[in-house]
Protein backbone atom coordinates (compact mmCIF):
# COMPACT_ATOMS: atom_id res chain seq x y z
CA UNK A 1 0.00 0.00 0.00
CA UNK A 2 1.34 3.47 -0.86
CA UNK A 3 1.11 5.47 2.36
CA UNK A 4 1.10 8.74 0.40
CA UNK A 5 3.73 10.43 2.58
CA UNK A 6 6.81 10.27 0.35
CA UNK A 7 8.84 13.47 0.80
CA UNK A 8 7.24 14.38 4.15
CA UNK A 9 9.58 15.33 7.01
CA UNK A 10 9.50 13.47 10.34
CA UNK A 11 11.14 13.78 13.74
CA UNK A 12 11.34 10.40 15.48
CA UNK A 13 12.52 10.82 19.08
CA UNK A 14 14.51 8.17 20.96
CA UNK A 15 15.00 6.16 17.79
CA UNK A 16 18.45 4.51 17.76
CA UNK A 17 16.96 1.24 19.03
CA UNK A 18 13.73 -0.55 19.81
CA UNK A 19 10.27 0.80 19.02
CA UNK A 20 11.48 4.26 17.97
CA UNK A 21 13.86 2.67 15.48
CA UNK A 22 11.03 0.49 14.16
CA UNK A 23 8.98 3.65 13.52
CA UNK A 24 11.92 5.42 11.83
CA UNK A 25 12.54 2.43 9.54
CA UNK A 26 8.89 2.12 8.52
CA UNK A 27 8.61 5.85 7.79
CA UNK A 28 11.85 5.72 5.77
CA UNK A 29 10.45 2.80 3.78
CA UNK A 30 7.49 5.06 2.94
CA UNK A 31 9.93 7.68 1.59
CA UNK A 32 9.89 10.06 4.57
CA UNK A 33 12.89 12.31 5.33
CA UNK A 34 14.01 11.74 8.92
CA UNK A 35 15.45 13.50 11.92
CA UNK A 36 16.48 10.78 14.38
CA UNK A 37 17.44 11.26 18.01
CA UNK A 38 18.94 9.38 20.96
CA UNK A 39 21.47 10.24 23.66
CA UNK A 40 24.18 7.84 22.51
CA UNK A 41 25.76 8.99 19.21
CA UNK A 42 27.30 5.66 18.22
CA UNK A 43 24.12 3.55 17.97
CA UNK A 44 22.24 6.54 16.54
CA UNK A 45 24.72 7.10 13.71
CA UNK A 46 24.82 3.36 12.94
CA UNK A 47 21.00 3.20 12.78
CA UNK A 48 20.87 6.27 10.53
CA UNK A 49 23.54 4.89 8.18
CA UNK A 50 21.63 1.62 7.88
CA UNK A 51 18.39 3.49 7.05
CA UNK A 52 20.08 5.69 4.42
CA UNK A 53 21.60 2.59 2.79
CA UNK A 54 18.38 0.56 2.82
CA UNK A 55 15.80 3.19 1.91
CA UNK A 56 17.75 6.01 0.22
CA UNK A 57 16.15 8.77 2.30
CA UNK A 58 17.84 11.77 3.91
CA UNK A 59 18.49 11.26 7.64
CA UNK A 60 19.80 13.88 10.09
CA UNK A 61 20.86 12.72 13.56
CA UNK A 62 20.86 14.72 16.80
CA UNK A 63 22.48 13.09 19.84
CA UNK A 64 20.69 14.71 22.79
CA UNK A 65 18.55 13.95 25.82
CA UNK A 66 14.99 14.55 24.58
CA UNK A 67 13.76 14.92 28.17
CA UNK A 68 15.83 18.08 28.74
CA UNK A 69 14.89 21.57 27.52
CA UNK A 70 18.32 21.91 25.88
CA UNK A 71 17.97 18.56 24.11
CA UNK A 72 14.52 19.46 22.84
CA UNK A 73 15.77 22.83 21.53
CA UNK A 74 18.69 21.14 19.69
CA UNK A 75 16.44 18.51 18.12
CA UNK A 76 13.73 20.97 17.10
CA UNK A 77 16.25 23.34 15.53
CA UNK A 78 17.62 20.52 13.38
CA UNK A 79 14.11 19.35 12.53
CA UNK A 80 12.77 22.67 11.17
CA UNK A 81 9.28 22.46 9.64
CA UNK A 82 7.82 19.09 10.59
CA UNK A 83 5.01 17.11 8.99
CA UNK A 84 5.28 14.13 11.32
CA UNK A 85 6.28 13.95 15.00
CA UNK A 86 6.81 10.65 16.82
CA UNK A 87 7.45 11.24 20.52
CA UNK A 88 9.31 8.67 22.60
CA UNK A 89 11.80 8.37 25.46
CA UNK A 90 13.03 5.64 27.76
CA UNK A 91 10.52 4.37 30.29
CA UNK A 92 10.85 5.01 34.05
CA UNK A 93 12.43 2.30 36.24
CA UNK A 94 10.26 -0.28 38.01
CA UNK A 95 9.88 -0.13 41.80
CA UNK A 96 7.55 -0.03 44.76
CA UNK A 97 4.82 2.60 45.24
CA UNK A 98 6.05 3.41 48.76
CA UNK A 99 9.64 4.16 47.66
CA UNK A 100 9.20 6.86 45.01
CA UNK A 101 10.13 10.41 45.98
CA UNK A 102 8.86 13.67 44.56
CA UNK A 103 12.07 13.81 42.45
CA UNK A 104 11.34 10.35 41.00
CA UNK A 105 7.86 11.51 39.97
CA UNK A 106 9.17 14.76 38.48
CA UNK A 107 11.74 12.82 36.41
CA UNK A 108 9.04 10.44 35.11
CA UNK A 109 6.67 13.31 34.33
CA UNK A 110 9.44 15.18 32.51
CA UNK A 111 10.36 12.17 30.38
CA UNK A 112 7.00 10.62 29.59
CA UNK A 113 4.50 13.47 29.87
CA UNK A 114 5.97 16.99 29.76
CA UNK A 115 8.58 16.32 27.03
CA UNK A 116 6.08 15.04 24.46
CA UNK A 117 3.74 17.89 25.37
CA UNK A 118 6.54 20.46 24.90
CA UNK A 119 7.43 18.96 21.50
CA UNK A 120 3.78 19.05 20.40
CA UNK A 121 3.44 22.67 21.52
CA UNK A 122 6.29 23.62 19.18
CA UNK A 123 5.35 21.37 16.24
CA UNK A 124 1.55 21.76 16.13
CA UNK A 125 1.27 25.45 15.07
CA UNK A 126 3.32 24.85 11.88
CA UNK A 127 1.38 21.69 11.04
CA UNK A 128 -1.91 23.55 11.51
CA UNK A 129 -0.71 26.46 9.36
CA UNK A 130 0.16 23.99 6.57
CA UNK A 131 -3.14 22.10 7.05
CA UNK A 132 -1.48 18.70 7.47
CA UNK A 133 0.28 16.93 10.31
CA UNK A 134 0.61 13.65 12.14
CA UNK A 135 1.65 13.12 15.76
CA UNK A 136 2.12 9.66 17.24
CA UNK A 137 3.06 9.33 20.90
CA UNK A 138 4.58 6.05 22.07
CA UNK A 139 3.02 5.42 25.48
CA UNK A 140 2.27 2.00 27.02
CA UNK A 141 -0.40 -0.60 27.59
CA UNK A 142 -0.16 0.55 31.22
CA UNK A 143 -2.50 3.38 30.17
CA UNK A 144 -5.31 0.83 29.75
CA UNK A 145 -4.25 -1.74 32.34
CA UNK A 146 -1.83 -0.65 35.07
CA UNK A 147 1.43 -2.53 35.58
CA UNK A 148 1.90 -2.36 39.37
CA UNK A 149 5.73 -2.29 39.35
CA UNK A 150 5.68 0.55 36.80
CA UNK A 151 3.75 3.08 38.87
CA UNK A 152 5.89 5.98 37.66
CA UNK A 153 5.05 5.05 34.07
CA UNK A 154 1.35 4.47 34.87
CA UNK A 155 1.17 7.97 36.36
CA UNK A 156 3.08 9.97 33.77
CA UNK A 157 1.48 8.30 30.76
CA UNK A 158 -2.02 8.84 32.15
CA UNK A 159 -1.24 12.56 32.22
CA UNK A 160 -0.06 12.59 28.60
CA UNK A 161 -3.13 10.61 27.54
CA UNK A 162 -5.41 13.23 29.10
CA UNK A 163 -3.59 16.04 27.31
CA UNK A 164 -3.83 14.27 23.96
CA UNK A 165 -7.52 13.46 24.38
CA UNK A 166 -8.44 17.15 24.50
CA UNK A 167 -5.77 18.57 22.21
CA UNK A 168 -6.37 16.07 19.37
CA UNK A 169 -9.90 17.43 19.08
CA UNK A 170 -8.71 21.02 18.98
CA UNK A 171 -6.34 20.53 16.03
CA UNK A 172 -8.20 17.93 13.92
CA UNK A 173 -10.04 20.50 11.77
CA UNK A 174 -6.65 21.72 10.51
CA UNK A 175 -5.78 18.30 9.07
CA UNK A 176 -3.61 17.39 12.05
CA UNK A 177 -4.10 14.10 13.87
CA UNK A 178 -2.68 13.10 17.26
CA UNK A 179 -2.88 9.49 18.40
CA UNK A 180 -1.11 7.29 20.93
CA UNK A 181 0.37 3.84 20.33
CA UNK A 182 0.27 1.62 23.42
CA UNK A 183 2.90 -1.13 23.30
CA UNK A 184 2.52 -4.27 25.32
CA UNK A 185 5.63 -6.43 25.64
CA UNK A 186 7.94 -6.14 22.64
CA UNK A 187 11.31 -7.78 22.05
CA UNK A 188 13.58 -4.78 22.72
CA UNK A 189 16.25 -3.83 25.28
CA UNK A 190 13.45 -2.58 27.54
CA UNK A 191 12.02 -6.09 28.02
CA UNK A 192 15.51 -7.51 28.53
CA UNK A 193 15.78 -5.15 31.54
CA UNK A 194 12.28 -5.96 32.79
CA UNK A 195 12.73 -9.75 32.40
CA UNK A 196 16.14 -9.58 34.11
CA UNK A 197 14.50 -7.82 37.08
CA UNK A 198 11.62 -10.33 37.13
CA UNK A 199 14.10 -13.25 37.07
CA UNK A 200 16.01 -11.79 40.04
CA UNK A 201 12.82 -11.09 42.00
CA UNK A 202 11.47 -14.61 41.44
CA UNK A 203 14.78 -16.48 41.78
CA UNK A 204 14.51 -18.00 38.30
CA UNK A 205 16.62 -17.77 35.14
CA UNK A 206 16.18 -15.07 32.50
CA UNK A 207 14.89 -17.64 30.00
CA UNK A 208 12.34 -18.95 32.53
CA UNK A 209 11.17 -15.41 33.30
CA UNK A 210 10.81 -14.63 29.59
CA UNK A 211 8.96 -17.89 28.84
CA UNK A 212 6.57 -17.20 31.72
CA UNK A 213 5.94 -13.67 30.51
CA UNK A 214 5.34 -14.79 26.91
CA UNK A 215 3.02 -17.60 28.01
CA UNK A 216 0.77 -15.01 29.67
CA UNK A 217 0.21 -13.21 26.34
CA UNK A 218 -2.62 -14.60 24.18
CA UNK A 219 -0.39 -14.31 21.08
CA UNK A 220 2.21 -16.41 22.93
CA UNK A 221 5.12 -14.13 22.02
CA UNK A 222 6.51 -10.62 22.27
CA UNK A 223 5.77 -8.10 19.51
CA UNK A 224 8.46 -6.91 17.10
CA UNK A 225 9.71 -3.41 16.45
CA UNK A 226 8.87 -3.95 12.76
CA UNK A 227 5.18 -4.63 13.51
CA UNK A 228 5.10 -1.62 15.79
CA UNK A 229 6.78 0.62 13.20
CA UNK A 230 4.37 -0.44 10.46
CA UNK A 231 1.41 0.58 12.62
CA UNK A 232 3.06 3.92 13.36
CA UNK A 233 3.68 4.55 9.66
CA UNK A 234 0.04 3.76 8.87
CA UNK A 235 -1.11 6.27 11.52
CA UNK A 236 1.17 8.82 9.82
CA UNK A 237 -0.21 8.01 6.37
CA UNK A 238 -2.72 9.83 4.19
CA UNK A 239 -5.18 7.00 4.88
CA UNK A 240 -5.33 7.70 8.62
CA UNK A 241 -6.65 11.26 8.52
CA UNK A 242 -9.91 10.32 10.24
CA UNK A 243 -8.23 8.54 13.18
CA UNK A 244 -8.21 11.22 15.88
CA UNK A 245 -7.27 11.04 19.56
CA UNK A 246 -7.17 7.25 19.72
CA UNK A 247 -5.19 4.96 22.01
CA UNK A 248 -4.21 1.91 19.98
CA UNK A 249 -3.05 -1.19 21.82
CA UNK A 250 -0.34 -3.37 20.29
CA UNK A 251 -0.13 -6.08 22.92
CA UNK A 252 -0.88 -9.50 21.44
CA UNK A 253 -4.19 -9.51 23.33
CA UNK A 254 -2.68 -8.98 26.81
CA UNK A 255 -5.26 -6.49 28.01
CA UNK A 256 -8.25 -8.71 28.68
CA UNK A 257 -11.10 -6.37 27.78
CA UNK A 258 -13.96 -6.42 25.29
CA UNK A 259 -13.47 -2.78 24.23
P1 LIG B 1 14.63 0.57 24.15
O1 LIG B 1 14.73 -0.60 23.26
O2 LIG B 1 15.35 0.56 25.46
O3 LIG B 1 15.09 1.84 23.29
C1 LIG B 1 15.05 3.11 23.83
C2 LIG B 1 15.55 4.10 22.79
O4 LIG B 1 15.30 5.40 23.30
C3 LIG B 1 17.05 4.01 22.55
O5 LIG B 1 17.30 4.40 21.21
C4 LIG B 1 17.60 5.05 23.51
O6 LIG B 1 18.88 5.49 23.11
C5 LIG B 1 16.53 6.12 23.40
N1 LIG B 1 16.39 6.98 24.57
C6 LIG B 1 16.11 6.58 25.84
N2 LIG B 1 16.04 7.65 26.65
C7 LIG B 1 16.24 8.74 25.87
C8 LIG B 1 16.31 10.13 26.12
N3 LIG B 1 16.13 10.62 27.35
N4 LIG B 1 16.53 10.98 25.09
C9 LIG B 1 16.72 10.50 23.84
N5 LIG B 1 16.69 9.19 23.54
C10 LIG B 1 16.45 8.32 24.55
O7 LIG B 1 13.11 0.90 24.55
P2 LIG B 1 11.77 0.48 23.77
O8 LIG B 1 11.41 -0.91 24.16
O9 LIG B 1 11.89 0.84 22.35
O10 LIG B 1 10.69 1.41 24.51
C11 LIG B 1 10.32 2.68 24.01
C12 LIG B 1 9.24 3.24 24.93
O11 LIG B 1 8.12 2.35 24.92
C13 LIG B 1 9.68 3.38 26.38
O12 LIG B 1 9.12 4.54 26.93
C14 LIG B 1 9.10 2.15 27.04
O13 LIG B 1 8.85 2.33 28.41
C15 LIG B 1 7.80 2.01 26.26
N6 LIG B 1 7.28 0.64 26.32
C16 LIG B 1 8.01 -0.39 25.82
C17 LIG B 1 7.51 -1.66 25.92
C18 LIG B 1 8.30 -2.86 25.42
O14 LIG B 1 7.89 -4.00 25.67
N7 LIG B 1 9.39 -2.68 24.71
C19 LIG B 1 6.25 -1.90 26.51
C20 LIG B 1 5.53 -0.82 27.01
C21 LIG B 1 6.07 0.46 26.89
P3 LIG B 1 19.91 6.13 24.19
O15 LIG B 1 19.91 5.24 25.38
O16 LIG B 1 21.22 6.18 23.47
O17 LIG B 1 19.39 7.50 24.49
TrEMBL record:
SUPFAM superfamilies, alphabetized: NAD(P)-binding Rossmann-fold domains (SSF51735)
Family, as annotated: Belongs to the short-chain dehydrogenases/reductases (SDR) family.
Protein name: SDR family oxidoreductase
